[in-house]
Write a structure and sequence with these properties.
By secondary structure, the protein is mainly alpha-helical. It contains twelve helices and four strands. It has one domain: Rhomboid-like fold (Up-down Bundle), CATH 1.20.1540.
Length: 337
């Protein structure tokens, strides 16, 4: 049964035309005055609501246009850094895989690369926790959309934070989880692509993650605007590429080793959850004081999926080209024989 307040409102709305006819049909000036006040108030309220809707649409369009203008510098910077990384990687050839004995055990070339990235992350994390260096680390290694908004596109330090934020972490748990995933999955992609291409892609995935995180913050304008840091965007990129190249790879979840499944299912489910959370359609349950940069994860994962499809298509074209050359040689050999 409906609540009494709703039933009274519904009954009044049904009798409103009757009341209005009585007001205008009556010769009582008091009723005329009440009716005029009622309908003038209704007209004023309708006009006010219409004005508010138009103002909100105008404000939203201005917010979008201003966000697009502010994103020009960060977009150009992201394209420049990513393009430079790939240009530099093309100048180097991958070294042969050698095993080096260290006090921590034997390290392959891929593990050496990952170890260097991990060392850089730990170094920045220690600087972050060292009070005299916190201000400098805050400016260059923490993505702060509010500062970029105030700078109308970003100063040199705030633009560098698009890349620097991928090498900084908030807590020891944060850095452990990210670097553990990097150590587990990074060598797989490194062995497939080689060191130059792996490093170029790592930078590209980090820039893609930071750019989408910044773009969503400027478009949505939540208060306060969230800051972002961590290597999770680049790691999502690595996972996305590995998912395309080895979709049937079986993995387990850290601290839950009994949950085992194919990587394509884990990445598919996680990617959908992150996408819905980024668009405001849901929320991934997390402990208090822990917030996830969903846009950053989606940006890195998108870069990884795109790079994975590119590698797979290039390998397929190369296979077809070699098959065509082999057939042509067989035909020539048969004709000569």
């Amino acid at each position: 049964m409906l609540p009494s307040s709703i039933r009274r409102t519904w009954a009044f709305s049904l009798k409103l035309p009757v009341y209005s006819r009585k007001f205008f049909a009556s010769n009582n000036p008091f009723l005329h005055q009440k009716a005029q006040r009622f309908f003038s108030f209704t007209a004023h309220r309708t006009a006010t609501h219409k004005s508010l809707r138009e103002t909100s649409r105008s404000f939203y369009s201005q917010k979008q246009s201003s966000a697009l203008k502010i994103l020009v510098k960060p977009t150009l910077f992201a394209i420049f850094i990513s393009g430079s990384a790939w240009i530099v990687s093309a100048q180097f050839t991958d070294s042969q895989d050698t095993i080096t004995q260290t006090p921590f055990g034997a390290l392959s070339e891929s593990h050496k690369t990952i170890a260097a990235i991990i060392a850089g992350n730990i170094f920045i994390f220690l600087l972050w926790k060292f009070p005299p260096m916190q201000a400098k680390v805050f400016d260059a290694f923490l993505l702060n959309p509010s500062q970029i908004l105030l700078d109308r596109g970003g100063s040199a330090k705030s633009l560098f934070s698009l890349l620097g934020s991928a090498f900084n972490h908030q807590s020891s748990t944060h850095i452990f989880l990210n670097l553990y995933a990097l150590w587990q999955f990074g060598p797989m992609l490194h062995d497939f692509t080689g060191r130059p291409n792996f490093l170029a892609f790592y930078v590209t995935a980090a820039m893609s993650s930071s750019w989408l995180s910044l773009a969503m913050a400027l478009l949505q304008r939540p208060l306060p605007m969230p800051k972002s840091l961590g290597a999770s965007g680049a790691i999502f990129g690595i996972l996305g590429t590995v998912c395309i190249l080895e979709p049937d790879l079986r993995i387990s979840i850290i601290f839950l080793p009994f949950i085992v499944g194919k990587i394509k299912y884990f990445i598919g489910a996680t990617g959908l959850l992150e996408l819905f959370a980024m668009l405001g359609r849901g929320r991934i349950p997390m402990p208090r004081r822990i917030s996830l940069d969903h846009a950053g994860h989606v940006g890195g994962l998108a870069a990884g999926l795109g790079y994975g499809f590119h590698i797979r298509n290039e390998a397929e074209r190369k296979r077809k080209r070699l098959e065509k050359v082999r057939k042509e040689r067989l035909v020539r050999f048969g004709t000569w024989w």
